[in-house]
Fold this protein.
Amino acid sequence: MIRSLRFAAVLLAFAPAALAAEPILKVVGLDKTLTFTAEEFAALPHTDLKALEPHEKKERLYSGVVVHDLLTKVGVLSGESLRGPALQLGVLVRSKDGYTVLFALAEFDENFSSRTLLLADREDGQPPPATAAPLRLVAPGDKRGGRWARIVTSIEIVPVGAKP
């Protein structure tokens, strides 16, 4: 009986940790890493963006967080500071199924590109379909849909050029 009570007490002690929300996204900078639960991601400032979904060829309204804003949170250079060796950095967007796409860091900066790259958690007012949830990368302007990553789990800054 006492053994059963001890076991129950141990289970109750660890219950809050077990019930804690799991992260849905990890953003890895050069010196800083952040994780976000679905609730934390939903609380970030969101932007709406209409874009032609390249696979179904339908215009959709996406809502999500601008990827540049996520990169800023992990200390990635932008604006006038984005030059020299920083222009040799890439951004890997990884999906739960192992799919990975690469962007140049400059593609996320308004001084280099006029498009908005969005990590969407809403599509036409609804969560993305199960095949894309919980997060989908929206890359308007790409002629092909290969970099519209689905089931995104991480964004990582990586050096791709020669070491300075």
Remarks:
- The helical segments are 2-19, 38-43, 67-73.
- The radius of gyration is 19 Å.
- Strands lie at 23-28, 33-37, 47-53, 58-66, 89-95, 100-104, 118-123, 136-138, 152-159.
